[in-house]
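Let's do one together. I've listed all components of the complex below, 225 residues spread over two lines.
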Amino acid sequence: SQTIHQWPATLVQPVGSPLSLECTVEGTSNPNLYWYRQAAGRGLQLLFYSVGIGQISSEVPQNLSASRPQDRQFILSSKKLLLSDSGFYLCAWIRMNTEAFFGQGTRLTVV
Amino acid sequence: GENVEQHPSTLSVQEGDSAVIKCTYSDSASNYFPWYKQELGKRPQLIIDIRSNVGEKKDQRIAVTLNKTAKHFSLHITETQPEDSAVYFCAAVSSAGGADGLTFGKGTHLIIQP
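Okay, and this is what the predicted structure of the assembly comes out as:
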């Protein structure tokens, strides 16, 4: 069966520090992977998606970047965090443009 | 691209009553409409979905209806229980291609009053 792992679960980082969130998928190959951000416990904003190794599409201009170094690995990064980067980050695998499977989420607080 | 509107943003109902959440979508090529439930601090999880070739689908106390002509779909929860309290998201996927995944509504915070 397919499984998606995301870590860490919580993170408190100072303004200006770097960020690296990791997401890995098991049980499938060549998955479409996504990073969403959820502010104030509400809407899901699509940040990045990737259809394959080295292929990244960005939905919104932002302080973040993403990378796909391996088929089942998707990383969200920042060189210097801003206060506005605080939020709940979710990695997702979306199967054939149908059901989405989400990682456990990362609660990021920038202080 | 697709645009999904969801209403209401907050819904409070008495335990045992029914709850209805409504969504509209803009892309007539959309053909898959899932609903997700997100409990506080947890990941969204799929609770029911519907494809454009059917008008209604039921799973115990939960049902979803789809009106393709009007481009809207709704989630119905009957005999609500305290554990139904959560944020619910609708979403739409276009069959027009592209890999930009699901377009989500902004969510409805459902509160079940005891």
